[in-house]
Amino acid sequence: MIPEELEKIALATRAEQEALSHQLRVCTGTGCLALHSDHLKDSLTSVIKQRGLEQSCAVKGVGCMGLCALGPLVAIQPQSTLYQRVTVDDAIAIIDHLDTQPIDHLLCPTDIPFFQRQHKIVLENTGQIDPDHIEDYIAADGYTALIQALTEMTPSEVIEQVVRSGLRGRGGAGYPTGLKWSTVSKVRSTRKFVICNGDEGDPGAFMDRSVLESDPHRIIEGMALAAYAVGASEGFIYVRGEYDLAIKRLKTAIRQAERLGILGKSICSTTFDFHLETRLGAGAFVCGEETALIATIEGQRGNPRPRPPYPAEYGLWGFPTLINNVETLANIPPIIRNGGDWFAAIGIDHSKGTKVFSLTGPVRNTGLIEVPMGMTLREIIFEVGGGMTEGHAFKAVQTGGPSGGCLPEQHLDLPVGYDSLAQVGTIMGSGGMIVIDDTASMVDVARYFMEFCKTESCGKCVPCRVGTVQLSNLLGRFTEGSATAEDLTLLEELCDLVKQTSLCGLGQSAPNPVLSTLRYFRNEYLAHMAKGVATQ
Fold it and tell me: 245, 213 in Cβ contact below 8 A?
């Protein structure tokens, strides 16, 4: 692939799309597919064929449009009409109304905060392009950043732009991405690897899955840019095995990129080679930890190992390895296209850019969102999320998955950022955001996450293997109403022990939901003690 060939593909695809008077984009992400959006797409295509409208109308399957609560969604361009909760039975009416007034009972307003308050960088292509066609990605400026880097920039200049951007790892730890890249690039080795961590295991999280399903070429481009920057020639995309659709689309995207010469040898007629493969996880939460992930690619059991040495120096098969998660890599192409300073101008303090969240719970607009860092929790939940559903009142919001904490109403005006969330006892995490209403017991919430961590512990270190079991048992005494004051003291002491002495991030963060609920909802623990009083 040379720049001129890429430009020809882009121009031809854009011209083909502009020649259409109507383009019907049907969401074919997992959420909408569960509601038979694939049958809807087929029905729309069939009606268009029956009417002889193939030259002026086209139906395209696209990735997640975000508003999962109202799926299946159908967008009609260039008219900017959005239909919600569309069924197969609506296909004929939609085609009949292409040149007339939209169908009122299906119409979804697009001037609501859910759409207006978002700032899409990672998700700029989701819901816009067909993830199964590389031409669509190329027409949306896909792979231009890679060609720009290979033909106009040195590896150190690519790293410099990532450093300038202020991008931090979106997998949860928030480590500066540019610093990690710089570390790997400086290690001398005959062989280096780049790994994309797509082993998304947090309950209620579906950010990485949606990006992989909706825009797989973006991850390939981000990985190729990372490989060029650090001097790697081999890469692996590690995806949890339950993500069937993401895996299918990734494999298709890799084949397409290889066919066009975007992956393989002498990319863009340069000396840069990059080969990419997928690896499937088996649903173990602990394999989201980078050393455990590496172990499974090597064919070993997914156990974390002590660090140092870090993967940047001693990673896959003992070679220097760069590991970034899906969202981190998805930010790289636009950073290279637009420059690090552009990205750094978005966000706050030491939290630059945007963050993708999966917003779930009893809010009106559940789904996939991307907002600038610094937006408050209140704005996310009550503006973008549309507020609580009828009959429910806000009680808490849980961020960071099993590693995070629960925040009460008093912190709703907190700007979302790595440091601001850490100061009040939770973390950004990979982006799960679960809203909790006034019918929930926070002790039950804490026990749920502890049960999860207990089950997912690899068992390698005693504090996590034994500590999570004991914490779960103690929380059970509270929910049963048989806990004592001594149990409360023991619960706090055991949380501190597990947090301070566990080997990896799973055990170190497992007590966070308990500690945050003790901090903000202590009265519920006291109400459960001895008396067996149920709380609301």
Answer: yes
Show pLDDT as tens, one digit a residue, over the chain (536 residues): 677 888 999 999 999 999 999 999 999 999 999 999 999 999 999 999 999 999 999 999 999 999 999 999 999 999 899 999 999 999 999 999 999 999 999 999 999 999 999 999 999 999 999 999 999 999 999 999 999 999 999 999 999 999 999 999 998 778 999 999 999 999 999 999 999 999 888 887 889 999 999 999 999 999 999 999 999 999 999 998 889 999 999 999 999 999 999 999 999 889 999 999 999 988 788 888 899 999 999 999 888 998 889 999 999 999 999 999 999 999 999 999 999 999 999 999 899 999 999 999 999 999 999 999 999 999 999 999 999 999 899 999 999 888 889 999 999 999 999 999 989 988 888 888 999 999 999 999 999 999 989 988 888 899 999 999 999 999 999 988 888 889 899 999 999 999 999 998 888 888 999 999 999 999 999 988 856 544 43
Amino acid identity, position 407: L
Nearest 10 degrees: CA dihedral of 376, 379, 382, 383? Answer: -160
450 near 406, Cβ under 8 Å? no
Q: How many residues does the chain have?
A: 536
DSSP state of 75: E
Architecture of domain 351-437: Roll (3.10)
Could you confirm whether domain 141-342 is CATH 3.40.50.11540?
yes
* CATH class for the domain made up of 18-110: alpha beta
